[in-house]
Amino acid sequence: MDKITVFCDGGARGNPGPAAVGVVYKNKNGATIKKFGETIGETTNNVAEYTAVILALKKAKQIFGKEKVKRIEFDFKLDSELVVRQLNHQYKIQEENLQALFFVIWNLMLDFGELSFSHIPREQNKEADVLVNQALDKKEETLF
After folding, report:
1. What distance in Å separates the CA atoms of residue 110 and residue 61, rounded to the nearest whole number?
2. Domain boundaries, the chain
3. Is the pLDDT of residue 144 over 60?
4. Is residue 39 over pLDDT 80?
5. How far is CA 29 from the centre of its chain?
6. Nearest Cα to Cα of residue 38 among 15, 19, 14
7. Nearest C-alpha neighbor of 49 from the set 9, 88, 86
8. How far is 131 from 87, CA to CA, in rounded Å?
9. Higher pLDDT, 17 or 143
10. What is the third-level CATH fold of 2-65+121-143?
11. What is the edge-to-edge ordering of all strands in the sheet holding 32-43?
């Protein structure tokens, strides 16, 4: 079984404020396969973190194909301990808007083989963080 590591990050300037996501897919040798960053409108940091996972799952199906994702082990790395613990059923999800996003992820996961979610320190998620900030900076440039 192939293994893909997915580094995800989401952030909002102002919390809530302008928000973006960054996602990096790496193969088992650590080489980058694909990466993207995009703005997602005005929202909170937690919503942005969840949205990063949602978009990473959706784009994985586009990149690797609907059938192949069933035979790939995806290891998601996030620097949001809260989101990781909620996705791993260690923390209860109190906020209704996050509950709704959790269910979107849960339903997307049905199309995949093996998935895991791990917390990593922010320093180990710099590439995804850079993509978040680049997307937000680009959005600000277009406003002025």
Report:
1. 12
2. 2-65+121-143
3. no
4. yes
5. 20
6. 19
7. 9
8. 23
9. 17
10. Nucleotidyltransferase; domain 5 (3.30.420)
11. 32-43, 17-26, 2-12, 72-78, 114-119
